[in-house]
Structure formats: structure tokens, C-alpha cells
Design goal:
This is GTPase Der. The chain has 449 residues and is of the alpha/beta class. It folds into 3 domains: 170 residues, 3-Layer(aba) Sandwich (Rossmann fold), CATH 3.40.50; 173 residues, Rossmann fold (3-Layer(aba) Sandwich), CATH 3.40.50; 79 residues, K homology (KH) domain (GMP Synthetase, Chain A, domain 3). It is built from 14 helices and 17 strands. The protein starts with 6 loop residues before the first strand and ends with a strand.
């Protein structure tokens, strides 16, 4: 196999169809297989091609099967040895793997050895696709797939024997691989910021103070509306862009007609940004629009912070009161940071951009499934799920489904038995363990019976 090709390893207990799958993948793509000297005879390497271009190398650990069967007949000791043998071989194969095709048997369903091997694979933190083999017909396909969700890997049903879904398999496996580096040099990363707040709160003053002398107004890019005037600048070696600042400016003129200040168009600019800054006026307090905005940002899981501007105008006790009001309004999103600043005096402006960076970094975290499941054990042990309708929900498995914002899925026996208060406990605990203090977070519970 070409050494520079990414390698996908077929892992699975004996008889699930790995060898059949391997042959099918190789043959259907007219690739050449050969033995690799120096590698145990039991391992088969081949190259999977697409339109005659090699896409990835595939490694089959299938040779274990024969030995394994031989050992099974030897009785209980043999079976333990056999499991260990599979684990050892899998372990060796995983060492230089780029991704894993975890093969299971759709007709047998999920067996303990599948779960055992899957746990092993998860600990590696490699991108993994669960290939549900022997789904020879469409009937009962959904039913058969359901229990494999518990493994927490994305699933694809195939039939190696009948060649069903082989193209989709190559496509899904290719999707596991790291993106090829493109020809174009990537644009230097910039942190995109949206500035919201009612007219006169000091949005323009803040943008000017933060961007300083070196700002570049990027306006009227062909094909975009006049509203998309971006302000791009560099601070401490990092690149930032305030998006849609034309909207900010225009609205400043509608000082006497607050109703015209449109929450919806404000929200729109947040979708173009990595982090949103909501500016309030310390002298004016929290307006109805501000409340609506906070509510919407929270519901939409927008990463945001609150700036209480014009602190130079308000006495200390008024600021304390304002902060208290805001904390109450934010009781369901306590992760949102609040800064007391002044565009005029410069108070605490230096904290804004690093905080925005931090929120964005937290929002982009990817936590390995192994770490998540260790954390889940710890969190469940510290506080058991409460008894609801005479029993407790069982928690099987935790996985991260997405980032931006971090989204976690708990596979549980019965989500109805998990009260909201316990979900909030889980969120607090995960935030603490993984140090996600200011980014929004989504938690989902999925029942898998
Ligand atoms: P391995 O031990 O995991 O490599 O599994 P094999 O490839 O040797 O397959 C084990 C058995 O399952 C063989 O008898 C195959 O013919 C059979 N098999 C493999 N794929 C399929 C399939 O898609 N459908 C059915 N019905 N049988 C299959
Ligand atoms: P925008 O409508 O939100 O863009 O607000 P502007 O930036 O245009 O500011 C509105 C008014 O508030 C202007 O007169 C600013 O000089 C004033 N202003 C902005 N920030 C501060 C501040 O921190 N302290 C004080 N005292 N005035 C400020």
C-alpha cells in the first residue's frame, strides 16, 4: 500500500463480514491487493480507488477469525484468550490507522463483544463509521439499525455479500478522512464579531476604540448589500472583523424612534459572526429590546457577551444594581460574561477582545468520546439520576455531536425519566470538567431502548 495514503482499518468481531467487505471494496474498485512484508500474514492490505484515483488504504484484521474459532472450541479459557487475541490484533492495527470502519452484524444485533471492541476503538478517538453489515433487504432496516446507535458512531447499513450500498460506504469512509489541503492558501483566520445594542448605547464608539487607527473598512464587496460593511483590524497580532457595521451606523440616527430598532435585523448579523457583543447603556439600564435580544440570543445558543458601556456616567451603586438586574435576566444562561466598560474613558476595553477569543475557542472544542464517557461515569457517580416513576434512567453513553456550539448527546434508557433539573446538573458538571465557562452548550437526551 502506498505509504502516504490514509489507512482505514476494518474492525469487528469474527464473522460479521469484514473479509467479504474487504474483498468487495477492493474488487469493486479494481485495486490491487498484496501482502505486505513485515506485517503478520493475518493482516490484508489493499487500496480503495475512486475513478481510478487511490483514495485510501484499507486493512482487514479478518485473519484472526480462523485462530479465534480454533480457540473457541477449547472452552472458557480459550474464549477469554480469543477475546484477548482479537483485542491485541485490533490494537496493533489501530496504531497506524487514520480512521476505523467498525463492522457489526445487522442480523445478530449488538453483542457484548461488539460493545467491548467499540469501547476499545472509542478510546483511540479516531473518526469511526459503524458499518452494519448483512442488511440484505430494506425490510426491518430501521429496526435493525436502532440498537447500534448506542455505540455512538454514525451508522451505515450495507450488504457486503450483495454489494448493497458500497458506493455510499466508500463515500462515508472518505468523509472520515482529513480534508486534503487545498491549492489556495487559506484566508488568514479572523474572529468575526457582531455588535448589537440599541441606538446611542455607544456601539460605534466601542468599535472605533477597539479597532484603533489601523482599521480597514471592507465595504461593498461585489454582490453583497450595502449593509455588509465590515471593519477589519489587527490587535496584538490577532485579526478581528466587526461585521455589518453599516447597520450599526445607520441605526444610530434613529435615536428618537426606538421602535424602528429592529431586533430581527440585529439577530441576522449575529449569524455571520463567531461572537456577538450586546452593548447596553449604563445610564439607561436594560430596555425591552435588550431583554428580547438576550432572550433570542440565549434561545438560539449564540455565543455572546454583554458590555455595559458608559460606566463613567453611572455611580458605583447604580452599576451594581444594573449588574444584579442583568444576572437575574440571565439566570438561565449564567455562562454569559458581563463587562463594565467605557468607550470614553477606556475602562476595561482591553478585556473585550481576549474574552471574545476565549468564547470562540470554547465554542470550537472537540472532546474525544473516551474523555466524555469517563466524565459521564464520574458525573453520574457523584449524583445519581433521580428516581422517577419508581426507577432511574440508565445512562449508556455520551458523545459530542457538533461544535459551534458544543453539542452533546446522552444515550439513555428513557429520557422521560430525566428531569430538567438533572439536565442542568449535567450541564454544570460538564462545563466544569471541560472548562467551558462562557460558550453556549446544547445537551440532548436520546432514548435507546
Ligand atoms: P469476518 O470474519 O468478519 O471476516 O467475516 P466474513 O467476511 O468471513 O463473513 C462471515 C460470514 O458472513 C460468511 O459466511 C459470509 O458469507 C457472510 N456474510 C458476509 N457479508 C454478508 C452479507 O452482507 N449478508 C449475508 N447474509 N451474509 C454475509
Ligand atoms: P451607537 O448609536 O450605539 O453607535 O452610539 P455612539 O457610539 O454613536 O454613541 C452615542 C453617544 O454616546 C455619543 O455621543 C458618544 O460620544 C456617547 N458615548 C459612547 N460611549 C460612551 C461612554 O463610554 N461614555 C460616555 N460618557 N459617552 C459615551
Amino acid at each position: 500500500m502506498a505509504e502516504n495514503l490514509p489507512r482505514i482499518i476494518l474492525v469487528g468481531r469474527p464473522n460479521v463480514g469484514k473479509s467479504t467487505l474487504f474483498n468487495r471494496l477492493i474488487r469493486s474498485n479494481r485495486a490491487i491487493t498484496h501482502d505486505r512484508p513485515g506485517i503478520t500474514r493475518d493482516r490484508m492490505d489493499g487500496v480503495v480507488r475512486r475513478k481510478d484515483m487511490p483514495v485510501f488504504g484499507i486493512v482487514d484484521t479478518g485473519g484472526i477469525t480462523l485462530d479465534a474459532h480454533a480457540m473457541v472450541v477449547e472452552g472458557p479459557e480459550g474464549i477469554r484468550g480469543f477475546e484477548q487475541d482479537i483485542l491485541n490484533q485490533t490494537e496493533a492495527a489501530l496504531k497506524d490507522a487514520t480512521a476505523v470502519a467498525f463492522v457489526v452484524d445487522g442480523r445478530d444485533g449488538l453483542l457484548p463483544l461488539d460493545e467491548h471492541l467499540a469501547a476499545h476503538v472509542r478510546r483511540k478517538g479516531l473518526p469511526t463509521l459503524c458499518v452494519v453489515n448483512k442488511v440484505d433487504g430494506a425490510e426491518h432496516e430501521d429496526e435493525r439499525m436502532a440498537e447500534f446507535h448506542a455505540l455512538g458512531f454514525p451508522l451505515l447499513a450495507v450488504s457486503a455479500e450483495h454489494g448493497h450500498n458500497m458506493n455510499a460506504l466508500v463515500e462515508d469512509l472518505t468523509a472520515l478522512l482529513p480534508e486534503e489541503s487545498s491549492e489556495e492558501p487559506p484566508a488568514p483566520p479572523t474572529l468575526r464579531l457582531a455588535m448589537l445594542g440599541r441606538p446611542n448605547a455607544g456601539k460605534s464608539s466601542l468599535i472605533n476604540a477597539l479597532s484603533g487607527e489601523d482599521r480597514m473598512i471592507v465595504s461593498d464587496v461585489a454582490g453583497t448589500t450595502r449593509d455588509s460593511v465590515d471593519v477589519r483590524f489587527t490587535k496584538n497580532g490577532k485579526d478581528y472583523t466587526f461585521v455589518d457595521t453599516a447597520g450599526v451606523r445607520r441605526r444610530t440616527k434613529i435615536t428618537d424612534n426606538v421602535e424602528k430598532y429592529s431586533v430581527n435585523s440585529a439577530i441576522k448579523s449575529t449569524t455571520k459572526a463567531d461572537v456577538t457583543l450586546l452593548t447596553l447603556d449604563a445610564a439607561e439600564g436594560v430596555s425591552q429590546q435588550d431583554k428580547r435580544l438576550m432572550d433570542m440570543l440565549n434561545t438560539r445558543k449564540t455565543p455572546f457577551m454583554i458590555l455595559i458601556n458608559k460606566c463613567d456616567l453611572a455611580p458605583r451603586n447604580a452599576l451594581d444594581q444594573l449588574r444584579k438586574n442583568i444576572n437575574e435576566l440571565l439566570s438561565f444562561c449564567q455562562h454569559v460574561p458581563v463587562l463594565l466598560v467605557s468607550a470614553l474613558s477606556g475602562k476595561d476595553l482591553h478585556k473585550i477582545l481576549p474574552l471574545a477569543q476565549k468564547i470562540h475557542e470554547e465554542c470550537s472544542v472537540r472532546i474525544s468520546t473516551g474523555k466524555l464517557n469517563r466524565a459521564m461515569e464520574e458525573v453520574l457517580t457523584r449524583h445519581q439520576p433521580p428516581v422517577v416513576k419508581r426507577s432511574r434512567a440508565k445512562f449508556f453513553y455520551l458523545t459530542q455531536a457538533e461544535s459551534q456550539p458544543p453539542t452533546f448527546v446522552f444515550f439513555v434508557s428513557d429520557s422521560e425519566r430525566v428531569p430538567e433539573s438533572y439536565v442542568r446538573y449535567l450541564e454544570r458538571a460538564l462545563r466544569k470538567i471541560f472548562e467551558i465557562s462562557h460558550a453556549p452548550m446544547r445537551l440532548h437526551l436520546r432514548s435507546s431502548h
